Amino acid sequence: MFKEVLTNHSYDMLSSMLKKCLFLCLLMFVYTINIQAQEKDKNEDKKQTEYKERGKTLDTQLETIDAVENEIEDEDLEESEVELKEAQDALKEDAEDSKIDMEESIEGETEQLQENLDEEAQEQIEESVEDVGEQIEESSEDLGDQIDESTENVSDQIDETIDEVDDQIDESIEDVQESLDNDSDEDVKEHNDKGM
């Protein structure tokens, strides 16, 4: 009987101890899980903080980069504007120099051309005068020949006309002489007839 009671008591104690151990194990497990969760949350918070700090750092770096780029762009733009202004001034000077050179070249070519034109014009005038003189001489010779020919023709015509007039005069004289002779013969005949 005593053994049974002891056994039951031992069993209850053992069962109670087991329950307490299980409860403690459960508490330890829950505590451990809770601690791990807290550590995980801390790690997550830490990571989030690090990410935020990195993001801020990156934003700062990006802003710095943008500022540097803008400054570089501004400097480059200013340098480009200065270079462009210098290039424009250089081009303007070159254009003015080229204009002056071109004007001088055109003036020199114009003077040379004028001299050449004057020489050519003088030569052409001299050649024209010579040609006109030759043409006048040729025309004078032709005109003299024509005058000589015309004079000869007129002289021939005058001679022919004189010859014709002489012939006509001779014929008229002969006709008158014949008429006079005929009249004289008739008068003599009539006189003779009257005398008889």
TrEMBL record:
<protein>
    <submittedName>
        <fullName>Uncharacterized protein</fullName>
    </submittedName>
</protein>
<feature type="compositionally biased region" description="Acidic residues">
    <location>
        <begin position="72"/>
        <end position="81"/>
    </location>
</feature>
<feature type="region of interest" description="Disordered">
    <location>
        <begin position="72"/>
        <end position="196"/>
    </location>
</feature>
<feature type="compositionally biased region" description="Basic and acidic residues">
    <location>
        <begin position="82"/>
        <end position="102"/>
    </location>
</feature>
<feature type="compositionally biased region" description="Acidic residues">
    <location>
        <begin position="103"/>
        <end position="187"/>
    </location>
</feature>
